[in-house]
TrEMBL record:
Signal sequence range: none
Domain Glycosyl transferase family: 175-267
Keywords: Transferase
UniProt-recorded name of the protein: Glycosyl transferases group 1
Coiled-coil positions: none
Organism: Algoriphagus winogradskyi
An example Gene Ontology molecular-function term: transferase activity
Classification via Pfam families: Glycos_transf_1
Gene3D superfamilies the UniProt entry points to: Glycogen Phosphorylase B
């Protein structure tokens, strides 16, 4: 008689409006695809973001009947989950807390939100006072960038610093890289534009470099919308850079692929220091890699060592001389890697299936 081995179940619990946060939803779905590719049964449990969701979260934790429960951090409200986490541990459940943004950064973001002073005071107080305590009752903590010392207190051994995963198969690989003749360097920047992307730094550096007597000229296409779009458009006009910089708005599918096909280099975040970060795990950099485009960025990334030949790592600071010097001393060797080489790296290091194996091995399941 053949014994039937029951697959273990891994659930992901999140409070989410997927229409307002499609990127987050896409990432979670990809994570669960990685779970299934690793030989487990996956389950997505979504609770709404309306008042009362905290009680729903506690109920979901208490009724969880699988082996591993992944909970997307509730940030300043994590303290509310402590009793439920204790009960889950007593039932032998393994709980992973997924922290998409380090709490030290979230604290700053909460302080700068456009809400009433009373709400702002409550939120930052909850987060600061609960500090590292909610994480003490988890099996593992997933972090994608270094956490602040207060929030990391007592959590170093249970923290796993990982890079974000992507669904490599869902990203079209470009057929070939465009030729570089030394006169025109085409950049593409795809982002939900915000201050930490540092596109303003890039625009200013381009204005300086393109005004100098160099044979090479830098061209940039900006794909996406966001909080700083208008200010960036005004900056381009102020510096008379319309000839070199285009704003294309949101693109996907074939339209986005065409821009990837035409770009020599892609642009990741250039101002992590504005979020008090020295490292980050950017999804867009991973998508560039899967599509087969070399790229530039600042700060460390857990999946791309400093010597990664197709990722140019610039200093993580405000000084735009770093960018102008990069253009003045541009070395086309960073363009010499085929799309297939980058794609292979993405399959081996960035795909959701790889990430989930790493996480589950760390949990010991």
């Amino acid at each position: 008689m053949i014994a039937i081995v029951q697959k273990k179940k891994i659930s992901y619990l999140v409070s989410l409006d997927k229409d307002k946060s499609p990127g987050v939803y896409k990432k979670i779905v990809g994570t669960l695809q990685g779970v299934e590719q690793s030989g487990y049964i996956s389950e997505l449990v979504i609770k709404d973001t309306n008042p009362g969701f905290l009680a729903q979260f506690v109920e979901a934790i208490d009724s969880f009947d699988g082996e591993v429960l992944i909970i997307r951090s509730l940030c300043q409200y994590n303290f509310y989950l402590i009793p439920a986490l204790i009960r889950a541990k007593s039932r032998g459940k393994k709980v992973i807390l997924d922290i998409p943004t380090p709490n030290v950064v979230a604290f700053k973001e909460l302080y700068n939100t456009n809400t009433s002073w009373l709400r702002k005071f409550k939120d930052v107080s909850y987060l600061a006072l609960s500090g590292p305590v909610p994480f003490w009752f988890s099996t593992k903590i997933l972090q994608y960038a270094q956490e602040g010392s207060w929030f990391a207190l007592g959590n170093h051994k249970r923290t796993l610093l990982v890079g974000n995963g992507i669904n490599v198969a869902a990203i079209q690989e470009r057929k070939q890289a465009p030729l570089f003749d030394g006169t025109c360097l085409n950049l593409v920047c795809v982002a939900s534009l915000n201050y930490w992307h540092g596109v303003d730094r890039l625009i200013k550096a381009m204005a300086i470099f393109n005004s100098e007597d160099y044979r090479l000229k830098i061209h940039l296409k900006i794909v996406g919308n966001g909080a700083v779009l208008t200010s960036l458009q005004e900056l381009v006009e102020e510096l008379s850079m319309q000839k070199y910089i285009q704003f294309l708005g949101f693109l996907d599918g074939e339209n986005l692929y065409q821009e990837y096909e035409a770009a020599h280099l892609a642009v990741g975040s250039l101002a992590l220091f504005r979020k008090n970060l020295n490292s980050a795990s950017e999804l867009k950099s991973r998508e560039y890699c899967a599509a087969g485009i070399p790229f530039i960025g600042v700060g460390d990334d857990p999946d791309f060592p400093p010597n990664t030949p197709f990722r140019t790592q610039l200093p993580n600071r405000e000084n735009i001389n770093d960018l102008t010097d990069f253009f003045r001393n541009f070395n086309p060797d960073c363009l010499s890697y085929s799309p297939n080489q980058l794609r292979k790296f993405a399959w081996q290091n960035l795909d959701f299936s790889v990430k989930m194996k790493e996480i589950l091995n760390a949990v010991g399941d």
